[in-house]
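Troubleshooting log. The previous structure file for this entry was overwritten by mistake, so regenerating from the original sequence record. Sequence copied from the archived sheet and checked twice against the printout by T.R.
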Amino acid sequence: MRAPKGFLIGHFFNHQTHHRGQVHAMLTAAGQETGDTDLFLIVPEPL
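Regenerated output below.
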């Protein structure tokens, strides 16, 4: 399969967001505090 690089990069970010949402839902259902899950809040500086 061939796709434009921009499409693939967008897909990768969207896909990892999907999995972060799944983990967040599981942790919340288990009664755990999740804290911040936004990448810009958890990535150490500087990039």
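The two ends are 32 Å apart (CA to CA). Archived copy saved in two places this time.
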